[in-house]
Amino acid sequence: MGFKYSPATPAGKWLGFVTAIWVQAISGNNYTFSNYSDALKSLMSLTQLELNNLSVAKDVGKAFGILAGLGSDRLSPPVLLLIGSVMGFVGYGVQWLVISGHIQPLPYWAMCVFLCMGGNSTTWMNTAVLVTCIRNFRKTRGPVTGILKGFVGLSTAIFTDLCSTLFSDDPATFVLMLAIIPFAVCLTAILFLREIPPSSTSKEDKQEVKFFGIFNVVAVIIALYLLAFDVSGPHGRILSQAFATILLILLAFPLCVPVYLMLQNSIRSKESSISNTENNVVEPLLVQENQPEAEKKSETTVAEVVVEEEIENRQPVIGEEHTILEALKTIDFWIMFFSFLCGVGTGLAVMNNMGQMGLALGYADVSMFVSLTSIWGFFGRIISGSVSEYFIRKAGTPRPLWNAASQILMFVGYILMAMALPGSLYVGSIVVGVCYGVRLAITVPTASELFGLKYYGLIYNILILNLPLGSFLFSGLLAGFLYDSQATPTSGGGNTCIGAHCYRLVFIVMAITCVIGFGLDVLLTFRTKSVYSKIYASKKGKKSVTLS
């Protein structure tokens, strides 16, 4: 008897999660703009404001994630993945044609369109993966989100390091990777990612916790491996190729979980087959008649009907299922929305401008800072997801409290970068990466806990509107205008700025924004305390029943 694969089996469910990890490991291509932005700037003779607006166009693609949110309730995960992969292939493919010199530079507006397409592609991928996996593992939303978003954080470092080792940091080849690799990975995930009923027994719950622990360990090993490679200096060709091979093996290692489950299921099937052959099953002559399920359902009292009608007609409270309009009517949604803007908007400004920030402070190669932000963003995501879940189970601690802590740490990071002390860009990029990761990993499950899973795909994509909005406000306007006001024109028609003064005022404004975000997060923590107390009581009650 060989392996029998079905998406509905535990092995199929976990194989879908593994492919979801791979999709997330390549869907952070939006954060890699700094790796090829300087090539675009010189090729198209752009000012910093014009370059930043190209970056904004990339992030504006996420605004059209509303379409992915609407589609998540009507289209299957494979269809969502197919749409995202095609959008990315076209968007980044055209950028590669321009940067590689295969075609002449397109008009500015046309480049904005294709950057927007590339940015929009990830919203379809992320929606398919997050909505499906959170519904499949709804009892462990924190670890699920932490792992998936953690690999999004690592994706920038994965792309950057693979390109630098195999193709010597060539911008054209790098963009070609952004076009081809996500397309191929999404086609693989299309075959396996399906929505499966969540666990229903305590044994399955324990198994999920154990497997998520394995995925966390593998993810941390990959992050440390990337970090060690980045800080160990220049490498020869053979060593670089060995690094790339080992990295691909590590990314494939999570397949051990579904393979183990397939083997386990095969062994049990053989034992069951032998047992059934040896034992004759005798049907009893008299079967105890149970009340039909349909009759049980029909015995509904008038009082129950009245209660159900009252529930349907009232506005749901926080912690219950909300439609999108019901969620938008709540104060809590908008507190979450604007606090999210304060965190991710300022973080994106740093990521989009890291290339110019490094050059302004005298660093010729900024790929190190891009990788540091990515890798430490991973640690922020994966640690905050698991830690927040642990404290909900142990004490009912509201998740938004961790967002508040990240805002304070981000404030410190921006102050350090404004001071421009030796090494401050290293420290600042690490702090911003960690806090940006925490913000993403905490807000995603929080939204599902406060407003439910029924319309989660659309609610998630409305929150993600903060990415293009934050990019426009903090990267396009704030950083672009303030940089150009300090820069000097160049002979090619662009401009440049060297020195700590180039971005000092930008960092100060973003530090003040973090203080506002901290206040909003603290307010949301107090307003949602009762919700997390109920979640804590529910988990504790189920644990007591299981033990008894």
Please report the total strand number as a whole number.
2
Report the radius of gyration as a whole number of Å: 25 Å
Main-sheet strand order equals 1-2
How helix-rich are the residues, as a percent range? over 70%
InterPro entries: MFS_trans_sf, NFD4_C, Nodulin-like
Domain NFD4 C-terminal: 320-533
Pfam families: NFD4_C, Nodulin-like
Subcellular location: Membrane
Characterize this entry briefly.
The protein is mainly alpha-helical.
Give a description of the structure.
This protein has 548 residues and is mainly alpha-helical. 76% of the residues lie in helices and 1% in strands. It has helices spanning 10-26, 37-44, 48-60, 65-72, 77-99, 108-136, 141-167, 171-190, 202-231, 237-252, 256-278, 293-298, 302-313, 324-328, 331-360, 367-395, 400-419, 424-451, 456-463, 466-486, 504-527, 529-547; strands at residues 488-489, 495-496. Strands 1-2 form a two-stranded antiparallel ribbon. Strand 1 and strand 2 (495-496) form a beta hairpin. The protein is globular, with a radius of gyration of 25 Å.
